[in-house]
Amino acid sequence: MIRYTCDKQLNMHRVCLFPILLCLTVLYSCLGTKKLGPDELLYSGSIIKIHKDTVIEGQRQIASLLHDNVYPEVNSKILGIPVKLIVFNTMGKAQQRNGIRGYLKYNYGEPPVLMEDVPVDEVREYLEDLLKANGYLNSHITTEITVVHSDKKRRKIIYHCYLNPPYHILNITNGIKDTAILKLMLLNASKTVLNANDRYNLAKLKEERERIDHLLKQNGYFYFSPEYLIYKADSTIGKRKINLNLQVKPDIEPANLRPWHVNSVLLVNNTFTDSVPDADKVTIKGVDLVLGKTFRPKAIRQFVLFEKDDLFTYQKYNLSNKNLSSIGAFKYTNMDISPDSLVQNTLNIVVSLVPYEQRNFKAEADIISKSNHFAGPGLGISHTNRNLFGGAEQFTIKLNGSLEGYFYHDTSKYLGNYNYELESSAELTIPRFLMIRASKFSQQYIPHTHFKINARYINQMQFYRMTFFRFNYGYQWNETESKHHELNPADISFQHLLKNTMLFDTLLSKNPLLKQSYADQFMVGGSYFYKYSLPESNPKRFKTAFTGSLEISGNLLYGANLLLGSRRTEGMPLKLFGAVFSQFIKTTIDYRMYYKTSNSNTFVSRMLIGVGMPLGNSSVLPDIKQYYAGGANSIRAFQIRTLGPGGYGEDNKIQGFLNRTGDVRLEANIENRYRFAKRFELALFLDAGNIWLVENDPLRPLSQFKINQFYRQLAVGWGYGLRYLNDLFVIRLDVGNPIYSPIAFSRKPILNLAVGYPF
């Protein structure tokens, strides 16, 4: 019966898809060129055709390079149909952007790219220059304009490229006469990007000049420029070989070819000095500071890496700028550098600082929507002091509340129809390490020490009222721009069950493990988090991201009790201040891949593995530390907490909701994201995964993770989505369609409304 239903739905999809494609094709033929004038022709793209008399090295790469640099671009297409062009033509003669027709035409439409817009000769000359820049010095290009599929209104341009074998570098010599510069270059010669026998490539020559410029700037040559370097090329030696000789251009000012040192450094609080002209100056390690009473000079001095008589380097310049900008205390920072008029080859540095308002108040409101049909408003307010002790320490107090109601016609699934949660927190962030030697870590990034106190009150109307308290002390630092660490030596939590409903008491009495997970208990331990991700500014098409975490609780307490002679007995775990302390180890690994196949299309995948192991003093993980599956950021074809553990199925919806947590989580997701407009994106996705228990639970059969059967218990779903992209957030609407589940399931689509990407 299930298979028959699937096949029937598939056939219906095919039947519906054919007329849609037919309509789009008719629209394309009618509206793609119909609005063109009698002498206008639609530009339909270009073809790069390679002609050669022999085997040419790198011909595929050069053909791809030429194709990527042809301009202008043709009208954009979705599934081969120029939808934006059709929208532009359909909206007719609307000339203004106001009104519905004008708004659609100029915001979602695209005017036709005409043949008259294509500067054919200019493009040909540009492509020939690219050939020469890549070593194909004696090659040339001709053009041909052709009709597209007998369509009198559409044209393509064929660029015929007649390639000859490229030139290669025979020798590279250094003709620089300045001995100091020459010595630096020779010491770093192994880092060159140019080598003998390489194919001649103008981009590599520019890259090598920039490398040398960076090297010199890191050694005090503040006024040096890559434009001062020139490669003289001799291509007359025959056999398609080139000799290169690196020289410094003549007539360069001598001061630009010398290293510079720091004469003075002055940090000025502009807000303070504007009101106090003769402000007092404090000197710390050769740096003068005029900051007023708002900031402690010694605390701010550490963010500036220069000292008097230092060699001026761009690394210190960039890091000092970044440090002052990233600590969150200053709205603007400006570093003005000028030569000293008295001391030759020295620089005076003036750092102007404009602080933020010290106190900041913020309020936020949002709407929460879950795939289990609960939705409602949320409100948060926060107050931040950006400079609590005068050293850019941030102290933030937050209050949050949310209310969610059950909106669905079948309200018998849940006894209560609303829940609410209140949360308060206080956090102190200090922009430096406390009790740790900072010299052991990279000096390129500002480390942070944090202290957090958090309290939550949760009212699940049909089940319980519970409070959580947490204290956290730890450190955050960057190893590189891509590698982030967080270490929390002290992470202490306490959960307290305030009140139970009769239904909840009944459920707990039936399942001892469930009762233990909700019992009053301490979690005393630490945690470590590692994250690797390339910044968005990185131009790579293929990127990866990795997040790993390790949480440990109760091991030191358990060990201390053993040393003192205390032992856990059956049914009587060890306690701390009259309450049980949980003991476990938990690790989660999240690996992601992002492949940008074009400017508008990105393929994304994620693999998530999580394992939690109760140890010694515990038979089960605390409920707050257990895994669950389903929902907007997991397997989107299933509602949150409706999967697992394993192949366990529960007819009672309420009891099933509580029981659907586990110690192991496996999940894989793939998604294709296509941006079809400036602010909108389409997505097609496939999700698979589930949760399991580490140990067997007789009350939840088929729930234990077993290597020989877990793959048969993976739930699978596919779906599609629409996203609205904003500079600050992403609003996401995904529709998930179940394919398979190890237990009986509904084939109804699941709607997920969320903020942000799922991964």
How would you characterize this protein structure?
Strand 25 and strand 26 form a beta hairpin. The longest helix is centred in the N-terminal third of the chain and has 30 residues, at 2-31. 20% of the residues lie in helices and 39% in strands. The chain is of the alpha+beta class and 759 residues long.
List the topology elements.
Elements: H1 2-31, E1 42-52, H2 59-68, H3 83-90, H4 100-107, H5 120-133, E2 140-148, E3 151-163, E4 168-174, H6 179-187, H7 202-217, E5 229-234, E6 241-248, E7 261-269, H8 270-275, E8 282-284, E9 287-290, H9 297-301, H10 314-326, E10 330-339, E11 346-355, E12 359-369, E13 374-385, E14 394-406, E15 418-430, E16 448-460, E17 464-478, E18 483-500, H11 502-510, H12 512-518, E19 521-533, E20 542-553, H13 555-563, E21 575-576, E22 579-581, E23 584-596, E24 601-614, H14 653-659, E25 664-675, E26 680-692, E27 715-725, E28 730-740, E29 750-755
Parallel strand pairs: 1-3, 4-6, 7-9, 7-11, 19-22
Antiparallel strand pairs: 2-3, 5-6, 8-9, 10-11, 12-13, 13-14, 14-15, 15-16, 16-17, 17-18, 18-19, 19-20, 20-23, 21-22, 23-24, 24-25, 25-26, 26-27, 27-28, 28-29
